[in-house]
Design a protein that fits this description.
With 331 residues, the chain is α/β, with parallel strands linked by helices. The protein contains ten helices and 14 strands. Strand 10, helix 9 and strand 11 form a beta-alpha-beta unit. Helix 1 runs parallel beside helix 10 and helix 4 crosses helix 6. The two termini are 32 Å apart.
Length: 331
Amino acid sequence: MEKNILVALPVTPAQRAALEQSVPSFRFRFTTAETATAGDVLWADAILGNVPVELIRQNRHLEWFQSNFAGPDAYLAPGVLPGSCMITNATGAYGLAISEWMLAMWLGLLKDLFLYRDRQNRQEWDAIDRPVRSVAGSRVVCVGLGDIGSCFARRAHALGAEVVGVRRTVHPGVPCPAYCLRVVDQARMDDELAEADLVALSLPGTAQTAHMFDAARLARCKHGAILINVGRGTAVDSDALAEAVHSGQLFAAALDVTDPEPLPPGHPLWREPNVLITPHISGRFSLPKTLDNIVGIFVHNLRRYAAGQQPDNLVDPTARYVSGGNRLTCE
Protein backbone atom coordinates (compact mmCIF):
# COMPACT_ATOMS: atom_id res chain seq x y z
CA MET A 1 0.00 0.00 0.00
CA GLU A 2 1.28 3.42 -0.94
CA LYS A 3 0.05 6.59 0.69
CA ASN A 4 1.05 10.24 0.42
CA ILE A 5 1.99 11.68 3.80
CA LEU A 6 2.39 15.44 4.23
CA VAL A 7 4.36 16.51 7.30
CA ALA A 8 3.82 20.21 7.99
CA LEU A 9 6.02 20.70 11.04
CA PRO A 10 9.61 21.98 11.50
CA VAL A 11 11.03 18.50 12.05
CA THR A 12 14.72 17.79 12.66
CA PRO A 13 16.73 15.45 10.40
CA ALA A 14 16.44 12.71 13.03
CA GLN A 15 12.67 13.15 13.26
CA ARG A 16 12.39 13.13 9.46
CA ALA A 17 14.33 9.86 9.31
CA ALA A 18 12.09 8.30 11.98
CA LEU A 19 9.01 9.24 9.99
CA GLU A 20 10.34 7.94 6.68
CA GLN A 21 11.50 4.68 8.23
CA SER A 22 8.22 4.03 10.04
CA VAL A 23 6.44 2.84 6.87
CA PRO A 24 8.96 2.69 3.99
CA SER A 25 6.25 2.14 1.37
CA PHE A 26 4.68 5.51 2.09
CA ARG A 27 5.70 8.66 0.22
CA PHE A 28 6.59 11.63 2.42
CA ARG A 29 6.68 15.35 1.69
CA PHE A 30 8.01 17.80 4.28
CA THR A 31 7.01 21.43 4.72
CA THR A 32 5.66 23.64 7.51
CA ALA A 33 2.20 25.01 8.23
CA GLU A 34 3.41 28.45 7.09
CA THR A 35 4.95 27.29 3.79
CA ALA A 36 2.54 24.51 2.75
CA THR A 37 0.95 25.10 -0.65
CA ALA A 38 -2.40 24.06 -2.05
CA GLY A 39 -0.53 21.53 -4.17
CA ASP A 40 1.06 19.99 -1.09
CA VAL A 41 -2.27 19.67 0.69
CA LEU A 42 -4.14 18.28 -2.33
CA TRP A 43 -1.38 15.66 -2.84
CA ALA A 44 -1.80 14.21 0.64
CA ASP A 45 -3.78 11.21 1.85
CA ALA A 46 -2.76 12.01 5.42
CA ILE A 47 -1.47 15.23 7.00
CA LEU A 48 0.50 15.87 10.18
CA GLY A 49 0.37 19.51 11.20
CA ASN A 50 -2.11 22.34 11.31
CA VAL A 51 -1.98 23.59 7.75
CA PRO A 52 -4.32 26.53 7.00
CA VAL A 53 -7.99 25.63 7.14
CA GLU A 54 -8.64 27.31 3.79
CA LEU A 55 -6.18 24.88 2.16
CA ILE A 56 -7.18 21.68 3.92
CA ARG A 57 -10.86 22.15 3.15
CA GLN A 58 -9.97 21.82 -0.57
CA ASN A 59 -8.81 18.22 -0.11
CA ARG A 60 -11.95 16.08 -0.32
CA HIS A 61 -10.07 12.74 -0.43
CA LEU A 62 -8.11 13.24 2.80
CA GLU A 63 -8.21 10.08 4.89
CA TRP A 64 -6.54 11.20 8.10
CA PHE A 65 -5.62 14.48 9.74
CA GLN A 66 -3.24 14.50 12.73
CA SER A 67 -3.37 17.83 14.54
CA ASN A 68 -0.26 19.02 16.32
CA PHE A 69 -2.54 20.48 19.03
CA ALA A 70 -4.54 18.71 21.72
CA GLY A 71 -7.59 20.72 20.65
CA PRO A 72 -8.00 20.84 16.83
CA ASP A 73 -11.05 23.09 17.16
CA ALA A 74 -10.88 24.90 13.81
CA TYR A 75 -10.70 21.61 11.89
CA LEU A 76 -13.83 20.19 13.52
CA ALA A 77 -16.17 22.72 11.93
CA PRO A 78 -18.58 21.17 9.42
CA GLY A 79 -17.20 21.04 5.89
CA VAL A 80 -13.53 21.56 6.75
CA LEU A 81 -12.63 17.87 6.49
CA PRO A 82 -14.34 15.09 4.53
CA GLY A 83 -16.93 13.24 6.57
CA SER A 84 -14.92 10.01 6.47
CA CYS A 85 -11.63 11.64 7.48
CA MET A 86 -10.13 10.36 10.74
CA ILE A 87 -9.03 13.12 13.13
CA THR A 88 -6.38 12.49 15.75
CA ASN A 89 -4.81 14.95 18.15
CA ALA A 90 -1.60 15.45 20.12
CA THR A 91 -2.93 14.37 23.51
CA GLY A 92 0.08 13.09 25.43
CA ALA A 93 2.59 15.44 23.80
CA TYR A 94 2.14 18.58 25.90
CA GLY A 95 1.79 17.38 29.48
CA LEU A 96 5.42 17.94 30.41
CA ALA A 97 5.79 21.42 28.90
CA ILE A 98 2.45 22.83 30.03
CA SER A 99 2.48 21.35 33.53
CA GLU A 100 5.91 22.89 34.11
CA TRP A 101 4.57 26.27 32.92
CA MET A 102 1.73 25.89 35.43
CA LEU A 103 4.16 25.02 38.20
CA ALA A 104 6.38 27.99 37.37
CA MET A 105 3.45 30.41 37.42
CA TRP A 106 2.10 28.98 40.67
CA LEU A 107 5.41 29.24 42.49
CA GLY A 108 6.04 32.72 41.16
CA LEU A 109 2.66 33.93 42.41
CA LEU A 110 3.00 32.24 45.78
CA LYS A 111 6.37 33.90 46.41
CA ASP A 112 5.58 37.32 44.82
CA LEU A 113 8.46 36.80 42.37
CA PHE A 114 6.72 38.61 39.52
CA LEU A 115 6.01 41.64 41.70
CA TYR A 116 9.67 41.71 42.68
CA ARG A 117 10.60 41.63 38.99
CA ASP A 118 8.42 44.71 38.53
CA ARG A 119 10.31 46.41 41.38
CA GLN A 120 13.64 45.39 39.89
CA ASN A 121 12.66 47.05 36.62
CA ARG A 122 11.96 50.21 38.63
CA GLN A 123 15.25 49.76 40.58
CA GLU A 124 13.37 49.51 43.87
CA TRP A 125 14.81 47.59 46.84
CA ASP A 126 11.69 47.66 49.01
CA ALA A 127 10.28 44.40 50.39
CA ILE A 128 6.62 43.52 49.89
CA ASP A 129 4.95 43.66 53.28
CA ARG A 130 2.78 40.56 53.27
CA PRO A 131 3.29 36.85 53.95
CA VAL A 132 4.07 34.48 51.11
CA ARG A 133 2.43 31.11 50.62
CA SER A 134 3.61 27.52 50.25
CA VAL A 135 2.86 24.69 47.84
CA ALA A 136 3.19 22.20 50.69
CA GLY A 137 -0.17 21.70 52.36
CA SER A 138 -2.09 23.57 49.65
CA ARG A 139 -5.35 22.13 48.36
CA VAL A 140 -5.32 21.96 44.56
CA VAL A 141 -8.38 21.25 42.42
CA CYS A 142 -7.51 20.13 38.90
CA VAL A 143 -10.56 20.67 36.70
CA GLY A 144 -9.84 18.39 33.78
CA LEU A 145 -7.74 15.35 34.50
CA GLY A 146 -6.50 14.42 31.04
CA ASP A 147 -2.85 14.37 30.06
CA ILE A 148 -2.09 17.98 31.05
CA GLY A 149 -4.18 18.00 34.21
CA SER A 150 -2.75 14.67 35.34
CA CYS A 151 0.83 15.77 34.70
CA PHE A 152 0.30 18.87 36.80
CA ALA A 153 -1.51 16.94 39.52
CA ARG A 154 1.44 14.57 39.87
CA ARG A 155 3.87 17.47 40.23
CA ALA A 156 1.70 19.28 42.75
CA HIS A 157 1.35 16.09 44.78
CA ALA A 158 5.12 15.49 44.68
CA LEU A 159 5.66 18.94 46.23
CA GLY A 160 3.33 18.23 49.12
CA ALA A 161 -0.04 19.55 47.90
CA GLU A 162 -3.34 17.75 48.38
CA VAL A 163 -4.87 17.24 44.94
CA VAL A 164 -8.52 16.71 44.04
CA GLY A 165 -9.33 15.86 40.44
CA VAL A 166 -12.53 16.84 38.64
CA ARG A 167 -13.69 14.81 35.66
CA ARG A 168 -16.78 15.20 33.51
CA THR A 169 -17.91 11.81 34.80
CA VAL A 170 -16.42 9.37 37.28
CA HIS A 171 -16.90 5.72 36.42
CA PRO A 172 -17.51 3.26 39.26
CA GLY A 173 -14.68 0.81 39.71
CA VAL A 174 -12.02 3.08 38.21
CA PRO A 175 -9.39 3.55 40.94
CA CYS A 176 -8.40 7.00 42.14
CA PRO A 177 -4.87 7.91 41.01
CA ALA A 178 -2.26 7.69 43.76
CA TYR A 179 -1.48 11.39 43.38
CA CYS A 180 -5.08 12.45 44.08
CA LEU A 181 -6.90 12.65 47.38
CA ARG A 182 -10.07 11.89 45.43
CA VAL A 183 -11.61 12.37 41.99
CA VAL A 184 -15.14 13.79 41.71
CA ASP A 185 -17.51 14.53 38.88
CA GLN A 186 -18.56 18.02 37.82
CA ALA A 187 -21.73 17.85 39.90
CA ARG A 188 -19.55 17.93 43.03
CA MET A 189 -17.06 20.48 41.77
CA ASP A 190 -18.45 23.52 43.61
CA ASP A 191 -18.03 21.83 46.98
CA GLU A 192 -14.36 21.26 46.20
CA LEU A 193 -13.80 24.82 44.95
CA ALA A 194 -14.76 26.18 48.35
CA GLU A 195 -11.66 24.48 49.84
CA ALA A 196 -9.20 25.03 46.96
CA ASP A 197 -6.13 27.23 47.31
CA LEU A 198 -5.43 26.66 43.60
CA VAL A 199 -7.89 25.93 40.80
CA ALA A 200 -6.12 24.57 37.73
CA LEU A 201 -8.15 24.41 34.50
CA SER A 202 -7.19 22.27 31.52
CA LEU A 203 -10.55 21.97 29.78
CA PRO A 204 -11.38 21.56 26.09
CA GLY A 205 -13.38 24.22 24.30
CA THR A 206 -16.93 22.84 24.09
CA ALA A 207 -20.46 24.12 24.55
CA GLN A 208 -20.47 22.45 27.97
CA THR A 209 -17.30 24.21 29.18
CA ALA A 210 -18.10 27.69 27.79
CA HIS A 211 -18.00 30.18 30.68
CA MET A 212 -18.04 27.31 33.16
CA PHE A 213 -16.19 29.74 35.42
CA ASP A 214 -18.53 32.72 35.33
CA ALA A 215 -19.05 35.30 38.07
CA ALA A 216 -21.25 32.95 40.10
CA ARG A 217 -18.76 30.10 40.08
CA LEU A 218 -15.79 32.37 40.78
CA ALA A 219 -17.71 33.62 43.82
CA ARG A 220 -17.95 30.01 45.04
CA CYS A 221 -14.17 29.66 45.04
CA LYS A 222 -12.29 29.93 48.31
CA HIS A 223 -11.54 33.55 49.13
CA GLY A 224 -7.96 34.32 48.09
CA ALA A 225 -7.57 31.34 45.75
CA ILE A 226 -5.39 31.33 42.64
CA LEU A 227 -6.78 30.32 39.24
CA ILE A 228 -4.64 28.94 36.40
CA ASN A 229 -6.07 28.32 32.92
CA VAL A 230 -4.20 26.44 30.19
CA GLY A 231 -7.10 24.71 28.41
CA ARG A 232 -9.32 27.06 26.46
CA GLY A 233 -9.96 30.69 27.31
CA THR A 234 -13.68 30.23 26.73
CA ALA A 235 -13.94 28.26 29.99
CA VAL A 236 -13.58 31.53 31.95
CA ASP A 237 -15.58 34.75 31.77
CA SER A 238 -12.71 37.23 31.39
CA ASP A 239 -14.66 40.21 32.70
CA ALA A 240 -15.80 38.28 35.76
CA LEU A 241 -12.26 37.05 36.39
CA ALA A 242 -10.87 40.58 36.26
CA GLU A 243 -13.44 41.69 38.81
CA ALA A 244 -12.78 38.67 41.05
CA VAL A 245 -9.05 39.43 41.19
CA HIS A 246 -9.55 43.18 41.55
CA SER A 247 -11.96 42.72 44.45
CA GLY A 248 -9.70 40.25 46.23
CA GLN A 249 -12.11 37.32 45.88
CA LEU A 250 -9.25 35.65 44.01
CA PHE A 251 -5.67 36.35 44.99
CA ALA A 252 -4.27 35.93 41.48
CA ALA A 253 -4.62 34.28 38.09
CA ALA A 254 -2.21 32.91 35.49
CA LEU A 255 -3.55 32.63 31.97
CA ASP A 256 -2.02 31.13 28.86
CA VAL A 257 -5.42 31.31 27.15
CA THR A 258 -8.04 34.05 27.20
CA ASP A 259 -11.47 34.88 25.81
CA PRO A 260 -11.25 36.49 23.37
CA GLU A 261 -7.80 35.50 22.20
CA PRO A 262 -5.75 37.58 21.91
CA LEU A 263 -7.03 39.62 24.82
CA PRO A 264 -7.91 43.06 23.43
CA PRO A 265 -5.98 46.18 24.47
CA GLY A 266 -7.63 47.97 27.36
CA HIS A 267 -9.16 44.87 28.92
CA PRO A 268 -8.98 45.18 32.74
CA LEU A 269 -7.09 41.87 33.07
CA TRP A 270 -4.01 43.58 31.58
CA ARG A 271 -3.91 46.05 34.45
CA GLU A 272 -4.10 43.61 37.37
CA PRO A 273 -0.62 43.16 38.92
CA ASN A 274 -1.58 39.71 40.22
CA VAL A 275 -2.66 38.47 36.80
CA LEU A 276 -0.06 36.85 34.57
CA ILE A 277 -0.82 36.49 30.86
CA THR A 278 1.22 34.67 28.22
CA PRO A 279 0.18 34.42 24.53
CA HIS A 280 -0.80 30.73 24.36
CA ILE A 281 2.81 29.57 24.44
CA SER A 282 2.95 27.09 27.32
CA GLY A 283 2.94 24.29 24.75
CA ARG A 284 4.10 24.88 21.18
CA PHE A 285 7.63 23.66 20.45
CA SER A 286 9.68 25.87 22.73
CA LEU A 287 10.46 22.67 24.66
CA PRO A 288 12.07 20.41 22.02
CA LYS A 289 10.69 17.30 23.74
CA THR A 290 7.20 18.39 22.72
CA LEU A 291 7.97 18.05 19.01
CA ASP A 292 9.66 14.70 19.71
CA ASN A 293 6.44 13.60 21.38
CA ILE A 294 4.23 14.72 18.48
CA VAL A 295 6.41 12.91 15.95
CA GLY A 296 6.37 9.84 18.17
CA ILE A 297 2.57 9.86 18.29
CA PHE A 298 2.41 10.16 14.50
CA VAL A 299 4.95 7.38 13.93
CA HIS A 300 2.91 5.13 16.23
CA ASN A 301 -0.28 5.92 14.34
CA LEU A 302 1.36 5.67 10.91
CA ARG A 303 2.09 2.03 11.62
CA ARG A 304 -1.50 1.46 12.70
CA TYR A 305 -2.73 3.31 9.59
CA ALA A 306 -0.56 1.14 7.35
CA ALA A 307 -1.93 -1.99 9.05
CA GLY A 308 -5.53 -0.86 8.56
CA GLN A 309 -6.03 -0.35 12.28
CA GLN A 310 -7.83 2.52 14.00
CA PRO A 311 -5.35 5.14 15.21
CA ASP A 312 -4.99 6.08 18.86
CA ASN A 313 -5.91 9.61 20.02
CA LEU A 314 -8.96 9.53 17.76
CA VAL A 315 -11.03 12.68 18.28
CA ASP A 316 -14.80 12.55 18.58
CA PRO A 317 -15.89 15.49 16.35
CA THR A 318 -19.03 16.02 18.44
CA ALA A 319 -17.39 15.91 21.87
CA ARG A 320 -14.34 17.73 20.39
CA TYR A 321 -11.78 15.67 22.30
CA VAL A 322 -10.51 12.10 22.59
CA SER A 323 -13.36 10.02 24.03
CA GLY A 324 -13.09 6.30 24.44
CA GLY A 325 -10.39 4.24 22.81
CA ASN A 326 -6.75 4.77 23.60
CA ARG A 327 -4.95 7.96 24.64
CA LEU A 328 -1.21 8.09 24.25
CA THR A 329 1.10 9.26 27.01
CA CYS A 330 4.61 10.46 26.15
CA GLU A 331 6.05 11.85 29.37
